[in-house]
Amino acid sequence: MTSVAATTRVPHAHHDDRSFLRKYIFSTDHKIIGIQFLFVSLFFLLLGGVLAMQMRWQLGFPGKPMPGGGLLPESMAAGGVILPEYYVQLVSMHGTFMVFFAIMPLLVGVYANFLIPLKIGAHDMAFPRINMASFWAAFAAGLLMFASLFVPEGGIRSGWTNYAPLSARPDLSGVTIGQLLWCVSIVVLGLSSVMGSVNYITTIINHRAPGMTWFRMPLSVWALFITAILAVLALPVLQGAAILLLFDQTIGTHFFDPAAGGQALLWQHLFWFFGHPEVYILILPAMGMVSDIVANGSRKPIFGYHSMVFAIIAIAFLGWLVWGHHMFMSGMNPTLGSSFMVSTLVIAVPSAVKVFNWMGTMWRGNLRFHVPMLNATAFVAMFVIGGLSGIYMAATPVDMFIHDTYFIVAHLHYVLFGGSLFALFAAIPYWFPKMFGRMMSERWGKVHFWLTFVFYNLTFFPMHILGNAGHMRRIYDPTQYDFLKPYQPMNEFISIAAFLLFATQLIFFVNFWYSLFKGEKAPQNPWEDNGLEWSLPSPAPHGNWERVPTVYRGPYEFSSPEVSDRDYLPQHEKRPTDREPASTTAPSH
Amino acid sequence: MTHATATVDLMRPPFPAEPGSGVYSNKLGMWVFLASDVMFFTALIGTYIILRFGVSQPWAHPNAVLNVPLTAFNTFLLICSSVSMVKAFAAISQGDQRGLKLWLLITILAGASFVSVQVVEYIKLVGHGFTPAGFREGSTLAEHAVSDPVKYGAATAGLYGSTFFTMTGFHGFHVTCGVISMTYLYFTKVLPGKYSRQDYRGIETIGLYWHFVDLVWIILFTIVYLI
């Protein structure tokens, strides 16, 4: 099987005669699919934020009518005062939306789709139609989850982790339709994720441009590659678990119902066997993109490129061996707990390698603090805090004390907001010109960055203190507990900081929408970067390149002594000393 | 291909221009998908193992509830379909269109028969009172379970039903998907003679899936029907 006649239509750059529907709605173009993911998941990010604000109102000012609370039906907020049933829904749906429909699609759906073909020099994904199906499956899953807010009884009330038996027995949680929708939505989302990941993996393995060897790939592509491997192996486990849960709710099986011989802990095992790799799905792409941006902003080659790659692989591998650390309190055998503790602590090593490498990259660099660089720097700093608190709770004895307290909430927000979201605030303006052909406002980007950085820390740092004081997570009214009464002013403080943090995000949204239509026209290579995507006009055309570029070097040749007139050397630029890569058109079978 | 212009023209037919692994993308993608499907069945089978060995009461003897000889025949049918799949693959790799048509048709029929036998099995089991929720009250099986609770695993019938129907059901779903895909290929590609000695990617890719589904069944048959 060596050569075949062309039967598939080859995407052809610059001859774009597709209809509007084909071009923007049912598009198979990886860039459009990435942009579709961007708009949908920014909506869910906003929605998750709105839910969080309501939670913060209740925690800061329990029993007081919420401004605008009168708009909610009496079953959610009586006279504007949030009811306990609604509060637990807020908690559960905030987590669900943020993890599954905001952060994960923002990092993977948007940037795996948009960046992989552009950065490896491919015309599109290996399976463009499966890619389109992947977006529409994710969209359907999002709609199902969104719909669960509006059905009788509302969305789930059992936390984003949806622990059994509360989730398996509608008579216990009081939520029937919302639970069904949650399960079906998760199954469909898993399908979307698997379709996407199969695409990413195949594309990276098979569709790299000539000369784009494995160790010339940008770290963002490496991270997305490893993330796709995690997703393709982890999501089916969650799908399986959600299907079992669905059967428990509908056809009377007894997987998770201890009263009928099932095991509630089984849900926790299945969920966290998926859930911990999922944690790295939510951070590895952020790390990869931050690596690209930090090197660009420091005008230096990334420090320790190979160690960065192996650190990503090590984190991903170890991520499979640590799920038990979410379950130290479940009556686990202490010996088993210790092994989970040790495997968790070991993850600190590759994580620290990455942090030191970012610092080594910035060290004595010719720093350019553009908005992406500012946010990337914040990522590094915040990830250190979130990572260090992670080491605290990896230790079983400490976790016994802080389990299910606000210390956990502080930790996960330091990695998910301080980590993933700051990385996104870096990535969005960085690749905005290649997506839309315009620049986001640098001035408003800086305003947004500084305010976010301040209010973010004012919101989440005090939660460590609350957690140490024993403030439980997911509680409706902290003033009901005598030992928490002295901390109520801190809760109020956090709430006010959270409102300001939310208000600051409006700057980002306005900047985003304004720049979309009125932003300054982007030059081809606004950040003076080396990646292949910057060899294309902004926005990148359909089909990307007429002829794919040849790659002569790695992506981080900043301040190279080979060139004297500028401080960057693009991957596709041929220098007199460069040799052509060996033929890459070996017979395929 | 020469590199006179420092760029390689990948605007040629996409199929041979997949330099990375030397494995064409459809096949590679199928392998990745199968890896993910392994994890899916691992979740189901792992659940079964944990639940079955986590209970202290006896589990039903397979022969007591299930019709093992019937399913053994069904297993034989599925294994035969894997053989015929290989024959179809071997035929087209020699450019033998007639062989491909014949053997793929046999594969489709064997797969469809497997699903049909499974449907009959389900109907009979439910008729005897075996449901995903356990033994239906007042059914033949429920009466047997009262008289011989050890053999019929009276105390664990709920878990037995839950795991049995979930695992075999999802396997049946996979077989059905395979049969539908092969039928689709049969009419759109095989009958019009679109596969050739040079390009039979579709047959190889669906073949991989089919053998995987067969393999899963051999595991399921062993752990559900035999032990």
Record the SSE blueprint.
The complex is a heterodimer of chains A (589) and B (227).
Chain A: H1 20-25, H2 30-60, E1 77-78, E2 81-82, H3 84-120, H4 128-147, H5 170-173, H6 177-206, H7 219-250, H8 264-281, H9 284-298, H10 305-318, H11 334-362, H12 371-394, H13 396-402, H14 406-436, H15 442-468, H16 488-518
Antiparallel strand pairs in A: 1-2
Chain B: H1 25-54, H2 62-65, H3 68-93, H4 97-128, E1 130-131, E2 134-135, H5 140-147, H6 157-190, H7 201-226
Antiparallel strand pairs in B: 1-2
Task: Please outline what is shown here.
The complex is a heterodimer of chains A (589) and B (227). Chain A is built from 16 helices and 2 strands.
Characterize the structure shown:
- The complex is a heterodimer of chains A (589) and B (227).
- Chain A has one domain: Cytochrome c oxidase-like, subunit I domain (Cytochrome C Oxidase, Chain A, Up-down Bundle).
- In chain A, 60% of the residues lie in helices and 1% in strands.
- Chain A has 16 helices and two strands.
- Chain A has helices spanning 20-25, 30-60, 84-120, 128-147, 170-173, 177-206, 219-250, 264-281, 284-298, 305-318, 334-362, 371-394, 396-402, 406-436, 442-468, 488-518; strands spanning 77-78, 81-82.
- Chain A has a two-stranded antiparallel sheet.
- Chain B has one domain: Four Helix Bundle (Hemerythrin (Met), subunit A) (Up-down Bundle).
- Helix content of chain B is 70%, strand content 2%.
- Chain B has a two-stranded antiparallel sheet with strand order 1-2.
- In chain B, strand 1 and strand 2 (134-135) form a beta hairpin.
- The chains are: A mainly alpha (589), B mainly alpha (227).
- The interface between A and B is large, with 66 and 59 residues.
